[in-house]
Amino acid sequence: xxxxxxLCLFALLLPLAVSANSxxxxxxxxxxxxxxxxAKPVVKEYFSFFCGGCYGFEPVAQSLAKKLPDGAEFxxxxxxxxxxxxxxxxxxxxxxxxxxxxxxxxxxIAMAIFNQIHRSRVPFVNEDDVRSLMLINDIExxxxxxxxxSFSVRGAASQMKKEQTELSESRVLSSVPMLVVNDKYKIxxxxxxxxxxxxxxxxxxxxxxxxxx
Length: 213
Fold this sequence. Notes:
By secondary structure, the chain is α+β, with helices and mostly antiparallel strands. It has helices at residues 2-21, 52-66, 87-102, 106-119, 127-136, 141-149, 151-169, 197-211, and strands at residues 30-32, 42-47, 73-78, 178-181, 185-187. 55% of the residues lie in helices and 10% in strands. The protein has a 5-stranded mixed β-sheet with strand order 1-5-4-2-3, sandwiched between helices. Residues 1-20 form the signal peptide.
């Protein structure tokens, strides 16, 4: 009799367990884009400063970055396929963001760049425009200029371009913003509840980070 009750209880609980495990479905909420996951847990946001959607998503991105589990890193990867400015200006803005990030002001600099383009609608025309923005945001001129020329910043910007090219050629990256977890899982934003997007993203990111843990 006890065995029968146990079997009945298991049968009742099984649909709940399956439902909990299948809230996020491969092919609907996320896409597997690589066989192997990154060596360390990481969430990457592919974005452009010239993308209006990315501008609107920026507060969510910054909030998600602060809520990642210990040991996981949030990386912003700037792309240059939105032809709203020259490749040189876009590269400068990517490097300026990296300089700010290395100085502990990544979020501040990212939002300042976004605001100048989308709120103030003041274009970045040359290197002096980028430099002026950095100085306004309390980064010393000499420190900024040295960092912009540094091997580490130029190398990081080149790595952004390399990742963009590889994902574009494989047709994984065609629009931004795009989130990728552990270099393996591309999040499909459209399938998530847009009214509760940040919470859904946080839950899905946590789920995907655990898949290869």
